[in-house]
Design brief:
Layout: E1 4-7, H1 11-23, E2 27-33, H2 40-44, E3 47-52, H3 63-73, E4 77-79, H4 89-97, E5 101-102, H5 107-114, H6 116-125, E6 133-134, H7 141-151, E7 155-159, E8 168-171, H8 177-192, E9 197-201, E10 207-215, E11 221-228, E12 232-233, E13 236-237, E14 239-242, H9 249-265, E15 270-278, E16 284-290, H10 297-304, H11 308-316, E17 333-340, E18 342-343, E19 349-350, E20 353-354, E21 357-359, E22 379-383, E23 390-391, E24 398-406, H12 409-422, E25 424-426, H13 432-440, H14 442-445, H15 453-456, H16 458-461, H17 470-486, H18 491-496, E26 511-518, H19 525-528, E27 529-537, E28 540-545, E29 548-558, E30 561-566, E31 569-578, E32 581-586, E33 589-595, E34 611-613, E35 618-623, E36 630-631, E37 636-642, E38 645-650, E39 655-660, E40 667-668, E41 673-679
Parallel strand pairs: 1-2, 1-4, 2-3, 4-5
Antiparallel strand pairs: 6-9, 7-8, 7-9, 10-11, 10-15, 12-13, 14-17, 15-16, 17-24, 18-19, 20-23, 21-25, 22-24, 26-27, 26-33, 27-28, 28-29, 29-30, 30-31, 31-32, 32-33, 34-41, 35-37, 35-40, 36-39, 37-38, 39-41
Helix pairs in contact: 4-5, 5-6, 12-13
Length: 680
């Protein structure tokens, strides 16, 4: 067994590998970019070495530099995690050539399965059912368009070397094909260094079911059952669960055996995932094989009582698989939700910023059981960030993976809903509220699953925003007045000088003030503006919202936690202040209220508009218009790339492009004006 390994990755997977290695008595070496100097994965490893600037091409993708670091630090093996170099055959072979062990499959297996086109050819030869499509080498746009016409629309364009939902486009009409192909190829070359694509028939209402396989160097290969990853947006997984709802033992065995056959066909070693697309009638087609550990591997661990990273380390050191096929039973049900720094209400745009506050539900880093009557932890969190860390534009905006386990799917669903209610983040936008609606929605809760679930349920998943409830406004008002009461003065001064205490006390009569809050996401209340009247009586407070007056009493206050009584109702919540923003967490909901301090904004004026701005930091990859050009509403103007995903800035109305302010290749900051635009 190894005594020291290098982890050639970052984020939660690096932390995950480090935790398992430590439990096995193995020391770890982290590599990091300049942007990750203070990151969690650097802190949890035994050693850490800087390998370059923030861009991945100058740091985490420098294979030779990583090998040199491994040799210099005395590491015996390299664990690639997932992403970056994890499926790079040349890197795997270079690691072995340097006398180090690569904790993953051999380069030959990666080559066989790394190209979606080649893999489909291999499966076709093995008589595995394939979705109708074109997987050849001819990449002429006109030829590919003809193939799409032949297959019949809708079709799916997919980067041959792709993964993670990047480099994929659904094309509904022939006339949209060329533009979609160009966008797909740009994203593919940026993400994978290869712009080759394949064209497939896009199936309606399919499920995405994948099989976890594992092989050792002694010829043993098993499948650790299936995961259902059907809930996706932009072909990127949002929720994953194991086992797949509705899976029969016969179908599970058929898919598992097909997956093992695929792995054996390429002499596979280590952890891998064979992905299938399945129709509602139970038929399934081979999609691709991911020659690495998957992001969603924890749900498999939770139902099988295994640590797949430990398996990786043992297999890479030459040991046999810890379990045989007959020992791999399913115990309970597990679901994983990916917590991302993104804004679902704005097209899932990544959110850049600092995690000013992060409070997670009661959990352990990971605890595995499931055999001999031992149950795994009800809640598990895998994360590569901590409170105070920044989510940068350079890497994937994942904050954490929230995994729950239950004796059955019903219990797992209940635990996931509760855990999402307790997950509190301040500092940037997240998808937590969206995930909660998704989990509690009719389609997912009843296992009415397919890859179009989110699109089919837009109305329920993206409901019109509602006005903030009185309880949330009351909690914000109490938090504000408590902060004012304590103020910035020292405790002794406050106690000694009753005239310095901002408690609203008056010698004769009451004192009334109006607190102005706003919520840009709320409907009603004149666009989310709230004038909260607060009246200080000698006997207590009174809250007045739009003429609705109720007695308000602070029952308890410790840190950010408040207990209040509003009228006849008692309620509890946490209030986190971030500048002028009050983040109120109560009743499983998160309300963001902006306090309009009249003194702080005296004399401020709004800047003139007329400029379309960047929704996030990123790079301009295409400029579709020029100065003086007239455009129609919805017409694409500029395409930006951030976190390896393309985002199109479209015309908000008919109008005239007066000036283009950036060129292709330019880096732009969040909020930077991209072009001057005059509405018609």
């Amino acid at each position: 067994m190894f005594t020291k390994i290098l982890i050639a990755n970052r984020g939660e997977i690096a932390c995950r590998v480090a935790a398992t290695a430590r439990r096995m008595g193995i020391r770890t070496v982290a590599v990091y970019s300049e942007a990750d100097a203070g990151s969690k994965h650097v802190a949890v490893c035994d050693e850490a070495v800087l390998i370059g600037p923030a861009p991945a091409k100058e740091s985490y993708l420098r294979g030779q530099k990583i090998i040199e670091v491994a040799l210099a630090t005395g590491a015996q093996a390299i664990h690639p995690g997932y992403g970056f170099l994890s499926e790079n055959a040349e890197f795997a072979e270079a690691v072995e050539a340097a006398g180090l062990a690569f904790i993953g499959p051999p380069g030959s297996s990666m080559r066989a399965m790394g190209s979606k086109s080649a893999a489909k050819g291999l499966m076709e030869g093995a008589n595995v059912p394939l979705v109708p499509g074109y997987h050849g080498d001819n990449q002429d746009p006109h030829f590919l368009n003809e193939q799409a016409d032949r297959i019949g629309y809708p079709v799916l364009l997919k980067a041959s070397a792709g993964g993670g939902g990047k480099g994929m486009r659904v094309v509904e009409r022939s006339e949209d094909f060329v533009a979609a192909l160009g966008s797909c190829k740009r994203e593919a070359i940026s993400s994978f260094g290869d712009d080759k694509v394949l064209v497939e028939k896009y199936l309606t209402r399919p499920r995405h079911i994948e099989i976890q396989v594992f092989a050792d160097k002694l010829g043993n290969c098993v499948y650790l059952h299936e995961r259902d990853c059907s809930v996706q947006r932009r072909h990127q997984k949002v929720l994953e669960e194991a086992p797949a709802p509705g899976m029969t033992p016969e179908r599970r065995a058929a898919m598992g055996e097909a997956a093992v056959a695929a792995a054996r066909a390429v002499n596979y070693v280590g952890a891998g995932t064979v992905e299938f697309i399945a129709n509602q009638d139970g038929s399934f087609y081979f999609m691709e094989m991911n020659t690495r550990l998957q992001v969603e591997h924890p749900v498999t661990e939770m139902i099988t009582g295994t640590d797949l990273v430990e398996w990786q380390l043992r297999v890479a050191s030459g040991q046999p698989l810890p379990k045989q096929q007959h020992e791999l039973a399913i115990h309970g049900h597990a679901i994983e939700a990916r917590i991302y720094a993104e804004n679902p209400e704005k097209g899932f745009l990544p959110s850049i910023g600092t995690l000013r506050h992060m409070d997670t539900p009661g959990a352990v880093s990971f605890e595995l059981g499931g055999t001999a009557g031992v149950e795994p932890a009800a809640v598990r969190i895998d994360s590569g960030v901590r409170e105070g860390d920044a989510i940068s534009p350079f890497y994937d905006p994942m904050i954490a993976k929230l995994i729950v386990w239950g004796v059955d799917r019903t219990q797992a669903l209940a635990r996931l809903s509760q855990a999402l209610s307790e997950f509190q983040i301040v500092g940037l936008a997240t998808n937590i509220a969206f995930l909660k609606r998704l989990v509690e929605g009719q389609a997912f809760s009843t296992a009415d699953l397919d890859t179009g679930l989110i699109e089919r349920n837009q109305d329920s998943l993206f409901p019109a925003a509602k006005a903030a409830p009185a309880g949330a406004l009351a909690l914000a008002a109490v938090a504000l007045t408590e902060a004012e009461k304590n103020g910035s003065r020292g405790a002794s001064r406050v106690q000694a000088d009753p005239w310095g205490q901002a408690q609203g006390w008056r010698l004769n009569g009451d004192y009334r003030r109006v607190l102005a809050f706003s919520d840009e996401h709320a409907a009603g209340q004149e666009g989310g503006a709230y004038n909260v009247g607060l009246v200080y009586h000698p006997q207590g407070w009174e809250l007045d919202i739009e003429g609705n007056k109720q007695a308000l009493t602070l029952l308890a206050h410790e840190g950010a936690a408040y207990s209040i009584r509003l009228g006849e109702q008692s309620m509890h919540g946490n209030v986190r202040r971030d500048g002028e923003l009050f983040h109120v967490f109560t009743n499983g909901e998160h309300h963001t209220l902006s306090y309009q301090d009249p003194m702080a904004h005296a004399g401020e004026a709004e800047a003139a508009g007329g400029r379309l701005t960047a929704p996030m930091p990123g790079k301009v990859v295409a400029v579709m218009v020029e100065a003086g050009q007239e455009v129609k509403k919805g017409e694409p103007l500029v395409i930006m790339e951030a976190m390896k995903m393309e985002h199109t800035i479209a015309a908000p109305s008919d109008g005239l492009v007066e000036e283009v302010l950036y060129a292709v290749g330019d880096q732009v900051a969040d909020g930077a004006p991209l072009l001057a635009f005059e509405a018609a």
